[in-house]
């Protein structure tokens, strides 16, 4: 395999969990909710997904466990932030702390264990095309699922009544409620979807990307996913671009170190996290502006009794 092929392959695998988590958070944000618990949901998906894979030997059950773990934590967030009208930022941060703690406890018996990764697809003739065949037609199923999910979300938000309702609730929940839409139910469903995507992203890390379980293996990817949502500015195609851009940045330091490029590897490895901090600052500024005009991330919706 050529060096260029390995670089592109590593970027794709590094970008896929970021894209999955960012797509889920994108839908949550469109409903007018800010969930900072993506990191906690991801690591829960990684831990329980790997545990189920070891105990049952089934990749399908492991993927389902990862999705279920993310949705369970997301349900807790919805219970407090949507139905209990608790502070969204505090609830999201608590979710990350809770998810990290539970994941470490649940995965302590599986540290050091390994399992066979989920095999990549192989399409006769197409996969055998030099260079591009393996990149385009020989990836693992998660890669194609993430791209298909991006297309589906883009179509659903822009071309369906349900997507229009979700966006309307995010823009002005009071007006949506006056039109007869149940704001809290719609937001809860959006949060559960986001949790499922984050759990799936975590399962990808422990079932394909490594594949093994290690405490802290998400390494801030949940926060990077939040930064990608900010970078996207509400456009799904920018989410895809941002995920692959951040994935490329995370791989850059590894290949630069291997190639003896005269740039400190520590500086290169910090770039995704510096970009994440800047994006989260922009998110905070945008939230302050939105609170002034009553749109995104405004006070929790409490229907009139």
Q: Whole-Å distance between the termini?
A: 66 Å
Low-confidence stretches: 293-298
H and E order: HHHHHHHHHHHH
Gyration radius, in Å? 20 Å
Largest sheet: none
Q: What share of the residues lie within helices?
A: over 70%
Number of helices: 12
Mean of residue pLDDT? 84
Shape type: globular
What is the element layout, followed by pairings?
Blueprint: H1 3-30, H2 38-56, H3 59-83, H4 88-107, H5 132-137, H6 141-159, H7 161-171, H8 173-178, H9 183-209, H10 221-232, H11 236-258, H12 265-293
What can you tell me about this protein's structure?
The protein is mainly α and 305 residues long. The chain has 12 helices and no strands. Helix 2 runs parallel beside helix 4. The longest helix has 29 residues. About 2% of the residues have low confidence.
In summary, what is this structure?
The protein is mainly α.
Observed structural traits:
mainly alpha; single chain
